[in-house]
């Protein structure tokens, strides 16, 4: 017997895996990436390398990845676009580097009403969960009308200080195991997401 919530989690992982595999095929034929500031001993090394090999993340011109730097809304939008909507990206005639990604995400109601002046801001764990949840809704894996998950976040009252509009997204993403590496952020109050942490989620 598989509970409905566990089945939905399995389905979510299956769909995401198939989609990411389709992105990775050509990229994996290239040489493996190398970043001067991401040694093999780095805690998120595997996630960063897998995302880089799949063409989902890139480093900087100086050979670094800057894994501990905060990821911005624009950068995370690029990750989502490359991971989940690669065939729809159009890089012709845009003023800003992130427009091909934000336009596609907006068409799929992933960004919703995100203001353009917020795109250069550091991404919070709340908005990261919301964006991931919006992708799952777009993939028809979840619906906003579904009953909310009840998780250990509720039992530990860790949602008490989080704006209520994020509760459904955070419960769902956490229940899928996608926030296991971020549990401490809910209690420490440091809610910014780093580039390395973004790779862990994607």
Brief write-up:
This protein is an all-alpha fold and 202 residues long. 47% of the residues lie in helices and 0% in strands.
Order of helices and strands: HHHHHHHHH
Secondary structure: helix percent:
40-55%
What is the total tally of β strands?
0
**What structural class results from the helix and strand content?**
mainly alpha
The termini sit apart by 29 Å
Largest sheet: none
Structural shape: globular
- Mean pLDDT over the residues: 80
Task: Give me the number of helical elements.
Answer: 9
Beta fraction: under 5%
Poorly predicted regions are 1-11, 21-30
Using the CA coordinates, give the radius of gyration: 17 Å
Key descriptive features of the protein:
about 200 residues; mainly alpha; about 0% strand
How would you characterize the overall build of this protein?
- It is a single chain.
- By secondary structure, the chain is mainly alpha-helical.
- 47% of the residues lie in helices and 0% in strands.
- The longest helix has 24 residues.
- The chain starts with a helix and ends with a helix.
- The N terminus is likely disordered.
């Amino acid at each position: 017997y598989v509970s409905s919530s566990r089945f939905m989690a399995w389905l979510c992982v299956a769909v995401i895996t198939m989609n990411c595999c389709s992105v990775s095929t050509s990229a994996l034929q290239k040489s493996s990436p190398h970043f001067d500031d991401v040694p093999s001993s780095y805690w998120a090394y595997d996630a960063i390398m897998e995302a880089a090999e799949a063409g989902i993340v890139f480093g900087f011109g100086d050979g670094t990845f800057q894994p501990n730097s905060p990821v911005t809304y624009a950068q995370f939008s690029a990750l989502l676009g490359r991971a989940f909507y690669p065939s729809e990206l159009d890089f012709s005639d845009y003023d800003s580097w992130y427009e091909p990604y934000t336009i596609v995400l907006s068409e799929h109601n992933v960004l919703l009403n995100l203001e353009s002046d917020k795109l250069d801001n550091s991404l919070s764990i709340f908005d990261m969960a919301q964006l991931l949840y919006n992708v799952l809704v777009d993939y028809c894996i979840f619906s906003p009308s579904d009953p909310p998950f009840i998780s250990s976040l509720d039992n530990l009252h860790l949602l008490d200080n989080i704006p209520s509009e994020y509760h459904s997204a955070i419960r769902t993403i956490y229940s899928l195991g996608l926030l296991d590496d971020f549990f401490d952020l809910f209690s420490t109050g440091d809610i910014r997401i780093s580039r390395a942490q973004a790779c862990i989620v994607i």
